[in-house]
Amino acid sequence: MNKNNKQLYIDKEAVATLAMARDGLLKPVTKLMNKKESQEVNSTGKYKGGLFPFSFILAPSGKKNHQVLQNAKKGEMLELICDKKVCGSIIVDEIFPIDKHERVQKIYGTDNLAHPGVKD
What we know:
- Helix content is 32%, strand content 17%.
- By secondary structure, the chain is α+β, with helices and mostly antiparallel strands.
- Strand 2 and strand 3 form a beta hairpin.
């Protein structure tokens, strides 16, 4: 298998956010949420008894990322690429579809394409 099939391309903001979770700065979040946790947070606004505004998941966009995620298997290691360099890795636990419309609404409070975060 081509190595590119095991790489996810993420931006600096995703790298920084993942590092903050790893270092305990987003408590109670210390890892990416699974589907059940994500759905619970999206419906209740709570995680592990505390308020949390939206699910903490990795949802990289783009055609290459979509292909990688479509073929990823539980237990596989995927390299995280930022600015053409390996910046980390993750072990696949669960891959699940997300509602992009709902996600941007939760994060930005709007789905208006005039908002800079929404148009990405």
